[in-house]
Amino acid sequence: MKKLYIKQKVFSIGEKFTVTDEDQKPRYFVTGSFMKIPKTFRIEDEHGHEVSRITKKVISLLPKFFVEINGQEAIEISKQLSFFKAKYSISAEDVTVDGNWWDMDFEVSQKGRKVAEINKRWISWGDTYEITILNEALEELIISLVIAIDCVKQDEAASASSSSS
């Protein structure tokens, strides 16, 4: 079992943040493409090797995000048509997400076995997500999934604030 933490900086204009371990040592670095189309996020390990890439599909009726891990498309997050509240679906091979992922309080399972738990924590100023990885072989997939979900949430918040202006 391994615990990792994603602490987002509240005013991160360059869209950069770090995933740390329990000893606050950097494990992954996330860099977003600021003001660039298509919107992408790169996740690199502590040695600077790209682990995954998250891309928002630009030409689509409803928002879609794709996650490539080691050059292979592994996860798709799609917005569903809904009149009342934003609803998204997550498709990943043999992986399911159960719980309230909008509030970052959910479990990830593979073939019915729990492989990770994600919980939002209020440790200090800003959001911190605690990721408990039960199957360390899926660490890169789980980190990529959590960051992709956070990207979807940020995108939804940005579009909601721009449409209410």
Structural account:
The protein has 165 residues and is of the alpha+beta class. The radius of gyration is 15 Å and the shape is globular. A 12-stranded antiparallel sheet has the order 8-7-6-5-4-3-2-1-12-11-10-9, covered by helices on one side. The chain has 1 helix and 12 strands; from the N terminus they run ββββββββββββα. The model has no long low-confidence stretch (mean pLDDT 83).
Strand order within the widest beta sheet: 8-7-6-5-4-3-2-1-12-11-10-9
Tell me the span between the first and last alpha carbons: 45 Å
Tally of individual helices:
1
- Gyration radius, in Å: 15 Å
User: What is the beta-strand fraction?
Assistant: over 45%
The dominant shape is globular
In total, the number of strands is 12
Q: Output mean pLDDT.
A: 83
N to C succession of SSEs: EEEEEEEEEEEEH
Largest sheet data: 12 strands, antiparallel
**What low-confidence regions span 5 or more consecutive residues with pLDDT below 50?**
none
Report the helical percentage.
10-25%
Query: Structural class from helices and strands?
Result: alpha+beta
